[in-house]
From TrEMBL:
<dbReference type="InterPro" id="IPR006466">
    <property type="entry name" value="MiaB-like_arc_euk"/>
</dbReference>
<dbReference type="Pfam" id="PF04055">
    <property type="entry name" value="Radical_SAM"/>
</dbReference>
<comment type="function">
    <text>Catalyzes the methylthiolation of N6-threonylcarbamoyladenosine (t(6)A), leading to the formation of 2-methylthio-N6-threonylcarbamoyladenosine (ms(2)t(6)A) at position 37 in tRNAs that read codons beginning with adenine.</text>
</comment>
<dbReference type="GO" id="GO:0035598">
    <property type="term" value="F:tRNA (N(6)-L-threonylcarbamoyladenosine(37)-C(2))-methylthiotransferase activity"/>
</dbReference>
<keyword id="KW-0949">S-adenosyl-L-methionine</keyword>
<keyword id="KW-0819">tRNA processing</keyword>
<feature type="domain" description="TRAM">
    <location>
        <begin position="352"/>
        <end position="415"/>
    </location>
</feature>
<comment type="similarity">
    <text>Belongs to the methylthiotransferase family. CDKAL1 subfamily.</text>
</comment>
<dbReference type="InterPro" id="IPR038135">
    <property type="entry name" value="Methylthiotransferase_N_sf"/>
</dbReference>
<dbReference type="InterPro" id="IPR002792">
    <property type="entry name" value="TRAM_dom"/>
</dbReference>
<dbReference type="InterPro" id="IPR023404">
    <property type="entry name" value="rSAM_horseshoe"/>
</dbReference>
<dbReference type="GO" id="GO:0051539">
    <property type="term" value="F:4 iron, 4 sulfur cluster binding"/>
</dbReference>
<feature type="domain" description="MTTase N-terminal">
    <location>
        <begin position="2"/>
        <end position="108"/>
    </location>
</feature>
<keyword id="KW-0479">Metal-binding</keyword>
<dbReference type="InterPro" id="IPR020612">
    <property type="entry name" value="Methylthiotransferase_CS"/>
</dbReference>
<dbReference type="InterPro" id="IPR007197">
    <property type="entry name" value="rSAM"/>
</dbReference>
<keyword id="KW-0808">Transferase</keyword>
Amino acid sequence: MARYYIETYGCTANRGESRHIERRLRDGGHRPVESPEAADVVILNTCTVIETTENNMLRRAAELDSGTDLIVTGCMALAQETAFEEAGVDAQVLGWDEVPQAVGNGECPTVTPDTEPILDGVIGILPLARGCMSDCSYCITKAATGRIDSPPVERNLDRARELLDAGAREIRITGQDTGVYGLDQGERWLPELLRGLCDLDGDFRVRIGMANPWGIYPIREEIATLLAECPKLYNFLHLPVQSGSDSVLDAMRRQHSVAEFREIVNTLDRTLDEWTLATDFVVGFPTETEADHQESVHLLETVEPETINVTRFSKRPGTDAADMKGLGGTVKKERSKDLSARKAEIVGAVHEDLLGTRREVMAVEPGTGDSIQAYDDAYHRIVVPGELTGDRSLGERFEVTITDHNTFYAFGEPV
Ligand code: SF4
């Protein structure tokens, strides 16, 4: 869990994005502080409305770049991704949605403090259980959340029904590690829960939240079949691999191998026509050699995930990794830059393949300005111009043609 400082510029919409980031950071167990000096991570949410503003953003980013991890997000980060690097600022440039994951240092998010479901627009957030069955060497979250304590499947189904009755059209099941739900009771209950959700009445979608590879590996065939057979499940998995090197994974105590991660991906590739893989990498773990880094690059380039979170390792007090001798100099920065550059190419190519395709989407969240964030059934994020009204209101389904993309998402025009 990190101490963060966030500074926001620009319009009401951008301030709304900061509130959204802060809510997710709070749910992830992170703590706000009053000054950049007191923070582990500084977040600059930028505006790019006029040239003077851009110059101000660059100047402020340079001031904040003083040794603490700096994340730059917001409109200028989206529109001029390379401007900060060109100005000599050492920052991770990320889309708004990527910020909470990057602050998390590769740890799983804590579920909401009271683990109660939340309805946010048409998104129903359903925390399955708090805790995990792992003991990752860099993780401080575990100290707060402990071993997983799984409530029965029927209880979570009741909570899902409540969310649907309250208007949810997308249920996001969350937890530190959704793949080990039930394991404290001796078996994995995720497939049973998914079957129960698919049997509920209503027109809605379900997104499976973060699941570590070791929890999913034994049930990969069952999960792939369920995704293929139940149209209510988005064809999506968030499997944080963290490294492409088995020796780094061992030092992290991640309990999975690179081969097992690949086998899960291969199973879904074989079973589904189209799906989205989201994964995370921690760059610059204390034991990571250049050869280990190249293994991560190789994994990224051969698996080609559509959503990739790259986080520079930072020490969290009280963890075993905090006692390890860190990588000196600019190694972490350079490897993070390297992986992020490859990420941009891979995600760009994945989005390029979507160009010209026609697909049905559901409006799930308001976008920036007059735009709508929508998702298709393979959980591609598609930004559609226009207002959230009429047959394009939140929760409505409509068809789009993909016309453009950037590193973060695709753009679609209604058909
Ligand atoms: S799975 Fe690992 S990173 Fe996630 S909460 Fe548990 S110990 Fe922490």
